[in-house]
Prior knowledge:
Elements: H1 9-17, H2 19-28, H3 34-48, H4 53-58, H5 61-69, H6 78-96, H7 102-105, H8 110-118, H9 125-139, H10 146-150, H11 167-184
Amino acid sequence: MAIAITGDTEADQLLTDDPFALVMGMLLDQQFPMERAFSGPARLRERFGSLDPAAIADADAESFADLCAEPPAVHRYARSMAGRIQALARIVVDEHDGDVTRLWTEASSGKDLLKRIKALPGFGEQKAKILLALLAKQKGVQPEGWQEAAGDYAQPGYRSVADVVDADSLQKVRAYKKEKKAAAK
């Protein structure tokens, strides 16, 4: 299934084809419009020349932060996120031999996959559940118990980026988030 989050064909194709780009996009999806966050990996690949986790992990931190901060920045807090991207890449290299898919291909259950995602830098409980739901709903990664592990994000509807498949669903997710924020106040 093709990912359609950003509204940009090339950026969405990268998310579809490159699992590390998809995980990086989820990392960037924080205090930033989701379509811009998920466009970040394409922007970074264009500037850096690659999304190879080893190359990113080994890049000079200051130079890498400069690339991320170059307008248009990959994130609102580009320099801070550059460090998180490099930390993510380092974990992928050191713990998964450079293959981010090992997070899910080696998970024994949905609960185990959630635990593995939560061990990544920048992934708290909610973000980990959303990535789990995104992988399950849009990439077919459905280890036993994934629905329980993903919680409400596994349900049908328009709760998160896991449910974004086109511009219409993006607007429905935005409306849902706005409604939840209003209810919380």
